[in-house]
Amino acid sequence: MKNLILIGFMGAGKTTIGKLFSKEKGRKFVDTDERIVREQGKSIPELFDERGEGYFRDLETELLKKMLMDTKGAVISVGGGMPVRKENRELLRMLGCVIYLSATKETILSRVRGDGSRPMLNGEDLEARVIRLLQEREILYKKAAHVEVRTDGRSVYQVMQVVDQETRKWL
Ligand code: S3P
Asked: Domains of the chain (ranges plus CATH)?
């Protein structure tokens, strides 16, 4: 059975949708951030602080390679920066059906405001950061994905329904 992989910007709902969808389908759920944190014994902010972003990105690539060997039939939610590297985009597409959960900057901002657990969004002017990163990444998410599902104005259950419809032919 193929893996179903959820990509998208921070706050797009990858983890929430992934957990519920995996339960509904009786599939295993894997969250790459959670797996990295567990394997490293450190939180994401600690990894960024102590080892830097490049180290975290290398861990992400290594994890994708491991998952190609050990993960099948799962619903997988990946960190928002995972598809930025070309190598990762190729690995993601080899790993399974890639769904891009997209959202406008307004939706993203309403979901990530006041959350200190994301180092990429720390510092001044959250809005400017989100706009810049979203601009850089949107094209890369589209390149990585087999299917795009818009999440704006949709409830979690509505998004799950669309993911289900859109992925039937792939899985
Ligand atoms: C990141 C997104 C985070 C996490 C890390 C970096 C990014 O995951 O991997 O903080 O660069 O977009 P979420 O998308 O689950 O917040």
From this structure: 3-163 (3.40.50.300)
